[in-house]
Amino acid sequence: MKRTLIALIATSGLILGLPASASAHDTNDWAHISSIPSGYGYVGYAESQVGGVYQRVTMWRDNYNVLVLQAYASDTEEDGYCGSVQITYETPTSGGGWSGHYHTRGFGITDCTTNGAGVYYRYALSTTRFRNVYARACHSDPAANIIHCESNWHGPI
C-alpha cells in the first residue's frame, strides 16, 4: 500500500509539473519580424470559432521552405476566459525529409476584452522549414497560458 501511495504521489507530481505548450515565439522555431519579407507568397489561412473564441492564422511562404505566420484571436463571450491560438506543424529530419513529428505551440497572443476588436500578433518567421501547419481556438488566462483548446485542428495551411 505504501509503495502504491508513493508511486501515485510521484506520478501526480510529474503530471502536474509538465509545462504547458511553449509559445511559438518563445522557441527557436520562430522569430519576430515586423513585416512580410519580399518574395513571400500568400498561402491561405485556417480559422475557427468555438466556445467564445474566434481564431485565424494566416500563412505566407517562400519556395515551400520558410513560413511567415500571423495570428488573430478574439474573445467573444464573457465567460471568465480569454481567447488564444495554438498551432502545430510538422518538422523536417536532419536528412531533409519529413519526420512525421509535430511541434505544438501557443502563438503567444490573448484577447480578454470581449469588445469584438480582437488581437493581432505581428508576423512570426520560421527559423527552418515546416509543413502541414494547423491551428485551433483555445481558452487561456490573461498571460496567454492555454487552459484548454477545441478538439479539432483546422488546416493544413
UniProtKB/TrEMBL annotation:
UniProt superkingdom: Bacteria
Extent of the signal sequence: 1-24
Keywords: Signal
The protein's name in its UniProt record: Secreted protein
